[in-house]
From TrEMBL:
This is Claudin-11. Plays a major role in tight junction-specific obliteration of the intercellular space, through calcium-independent cell-adhesion activity. InterPro entries: Claudin, Claudin11, PMP22/EMP/MP20/Claudin. Residues 1-24 form the signal peptide. It is a multi-pass membrane protein. The keyword Membrane applies. Interacts with tetraspanin-3/TSPAN3. Interacts with OCLN. It is found in: Cell junction, Tight junction; Cell membrane. The chain crosses the membrane at residues 83-108, 120-139. Belongs to the claudin family. It comes from the Eukaryota. Keywords: Cell junction, Cell membrane, Membrane, Phosphoprotein, Signal, Tight junction, Transmembrane, Transmembrane helix.
C-alpha cells in the first residue's frame, strides 16, 4: 500500500511539473519591466513584458505584442532556451503516459510486474530529462537575461522603495 501511494504521489507531482513546463513555455511574462520607474509605472499603468517568443506592451486599454520573427538574429542562449523548453514539453507527454501505464491500479492485459517496473523506470528517466532540460533553460535565462532587459535594483530608504 505504501508503495502504491508513493508511486501515485510521484506520478501526480511529475505530471504537475510537466504541466508547469508547458505553461511556462507558452507564456510571455518571463520579465516585466518599466521604462520610467516603479512609482511612475504604477500611476501610468504601462508595463513591458518579455518572454522567449514575444515582447508585449501592457497598458490600461492596450495589450500589444510583437513576435520575435527572426530566429537566427536572436542570441544563442535564447535559441537554446526555446529548444530545451520545447524538448521538455514534447518528451513530457510520453513520460506521463508511461508512468500512468505503470501504475499499480492499471493493468494492461496479462502483463508481468517486471514489465511494469521497466515502464516505470523509462517514464522516470524521461521525466528526469524533462526536468533537467527546463532547469537548464531557466538557468541560462537567469544568467544571461532576456534580450533588451536591464536588471533593476531596488533601494529602500526611509520606508520607501526607489529604483536605481
Amino acid at each position: 500500500m505504501a508503495n502504491s501511494c508513493l508511486q501515485l504521489c510521484g506520478f501526480l507531482l511529475s505530471s504537475l511539473g510537466w504541466l508547469g513546463i508547458v505553461i511556462a513555455t507558452s507564456t510571455n511574462d518571463w520579465v516585466t519591466m518599466c521604462k520610467y520607474g516603479v512609482n511612475t509605472c504604477k500611476k501610468m499603468d504601462e508595463l513591458l513584458s518579455k518572454g522567449p517568443w514575444e515582447e508585449c506592451v501592457i497598458s490600461t486599454a492596450l495589450y500589444h505584442c510583437a513576435s520575435f520573427t527572426q530566429i537566427l538574429e536572436l542570441p544563442a542562449y535564447i535559441q537554446t532556451t526555446r529548444a530545451l523548453m520545447i524538448i521538455g514539453s514534447i518528451l513530457g507527454l510520453p513520460a506521463v503516459g508511461l508512468l500512468l501505464m505503470s501504475m499499480p491500479c492499471i493493468s494492461l492485459g496479462n502483463e508481468t510486474q517486471s514489465s511494469k517496473n521497466k515502464r516505470a523506470i523509462l517514464g522516470g528517466v524521461l521525466m528526469l530529462i524533462v526536468g533537467m532540460s527546463s532547469q537548464q533553460s531557466a538557468y541560462s535565462l537567469k544568467r544571461d537575461g532576456v534580450p533588451g532587459t536591464e536588471p533593476c535594483t531596488l533601494q529602500e530608504t526611509d520606508g520607501r522603495i526607489l529604483s536605481k
